[in-house]
Amino acid sequence: MTHAAPSAADAVLAGLPGLDWLESTYTDLHAHPELSHREHRSAAICAARLRELGFEVTEGIGGTGVVGVLRNDRDGETGPVVVFRADMDGLPVAEATGLPYASTDVGLDRHGVEWPTMHACGHDFHMTWLLGAAALLAGARDAWSGTFVALFQPAEETGDGAVAMVEDGLVDRLPRPDVVIGQHVGAERAGSVHLRPGPAMSRSENLKIVVHGKGGHGSMPHYTIDPVVVAAAIVTRLQTVVARELSPFEFGVVTVGMLQAGTKANIIPATAELHVNIRSYDDGVHDRLVEAITRICRGEAAAAGCPAEPEISSYDRVPLTDNDPDVVATVRAALLDAGLEVVHGEQITGSEDFSWLPRAWGVPYAYWFIGGWDPAAYDQAVATGTERDIPSNHSPYFAPVIHPTLETGVRSAVASSLAFLGR
Ligand code: ZN
Ligand code: ZN
């Protein structure tokens, strides 16, 4: 990996004021969000722009995924390869921002159910930033060499878009990257970039637990084994996993988000179902959480005399985002050279499927956040201690400001990519 001189970024970024389509592309994408796996319009917009810029474009990877490759070899030598990832999907949220470009669209989810749609996670910024960076890099090829890959991923919100691209042969369809990088907009102060080495976002997995009891009449509990009582005991006992089994210095979350059983007050059902979300910053902690949950479920079922062990299965597995320290150091230096305000990012308990992509090649990666909240409003919130009231990602009121958020994200995408591309 080479660290390009700051003047390379300066030369490329000189074209930024000339991108007169950037803001209208953003407001258009914002006004027309599409749900996970249904990003057809967004993907077409990204693909068309990349083609216009001279990228080799492949569409339909993993459903609606788009990949654009810009080869800029020098003297017949294939230089470094950078993959920059942006996700494309919106959320089933009714937008309440009141912005002039707010979404009033409805869209179908993958099951064909209609919802109001909103770019409540800011993936519209991610697409626009990457298109802006792609345009600037395509327009200043003398300033760098190597291969720049713009990757537009579907279905981050359902946690299965990156995997879908990998399963569709992504690794064999692209040159092997030296690094995979990406960035997310958040409710931090606009203009700031939040970057940290090591675990940055949690590993997440859901467990479905079916408790098998013995159903019967509500008036005759002595002829039954009540799975509702077993499920209730499991929920209570699960609260001890993080509190009593993890070290106070280890991070873990165990949330029972769903508990379902029964149809009527005077019927004892035969089964009860729990859905548990677990989070960690460490694969060893993750394994211990799963082990403890399994042990507790089996133990409570045995204590009640259940006729069968609980069935436990997992779904919606999202990997740990564990930023490579060397990549982070290189990116940080490049962003500072480009005049950006870089802040040591906080660990985020949320999760991202981004790292399935670098994991598929076995290459290092980094993922960071760009503040999008109006600086004056942000400072006011800090002054009055009301930062927690700033609407976060996924809120119907999530409303990052266009400026300087657009410019910051394009500048950081360009500067970070050039840190790995050659001259
Ligand atoms: Zn999200
Ligand atoms: Zn997101």
Short description:
An eight-stranded mixed β-sheet has the order 1-2-6-3-7-18-8-17, sandwiched between helices. A four-stranded antiparallel β-sheet has the order 12-14-10-15, with helices on one face. Strands 4-5 form a two-stranded antiparallel sheet. Helices cover 33% and strands 26% of the residues. The chain contains twelve helices and 18 strands.
Detailed description of the structure:
The protein has 423 residues and is of the alpha+beta class. The chain folds into two domains: 6-201 and 320-418, 3-Layer(aba) Sandwich (Aminopeptidase); 203-317, Alpha-Beta Plaits (2-Layer Sandwich), CATH 3.30.70. The chain is built from twelve helices and 18 strands. Strands 1-2-6-3-7-18-8-17 form an eight-stranded mixed β-sheet, sandwiched between helices. β4 (106-108) and β5 (114-116) form a beta hairpin. α1 (6-13) crosses α12 and α7 (227-245) packs antiparallel against α8. The structure holds zinc ion (2 copies).
